[in-house]
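Intended use. Records like the one below are meant for learning the mapping from a protein sequence to its folded structure. Do not use them to infer anything beyond what is encoded.
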Amino acid sequence: MILSDVDLMRAISSTNGLKVIPLAKDSVQPASIDLHLGNEFTLLTKSKEPVDIFDSDDCNTFKAKSFTIYPKFFILATTKEEVYIPPTMTAFIEGRSSIGRKGLFIHNAGYIDPGFQGQITLELFNCSCRPITIHSDMSICQMVVSYLNTPCNKPYSGRYQFQKGTTPSRLFLDTKK
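Structure written out for the chain above:
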């Protein structure tokens, strides 16, 4: 069951419930919570050499108030908010329709496990033919929250737990092939 604005506010008010910090007063929508763009961005180093999927990423992370994403360009960004998803819930990140209509794809791996705590790393791709400038503090995506039928036995404790800022892939921690 997806939580409505009433359910979201109830869950946020609960002592052991959903947390979104900071929570802007107009962020709770009819069935989602708007999350805002932080000020940290990560670019993967350009190269013509293939990258083994298990190699650690060679990247450049920096802070900025705005950033222009050129056509066919991929970057990582972060949400301003830190979230906590209790073991009784799960969440999904969805791009905003208004931003998608400009040609910016947001978050192609948008599932948040029960028990996750941290900022959300966003994967942004400009599929348009024009550069797109984004600005910190703008509403960038929506978090849709759902209850589980029963609380999970093993809340998330993976490699992205408590992440702050943009976090590149940690797939290199997996055992190779």
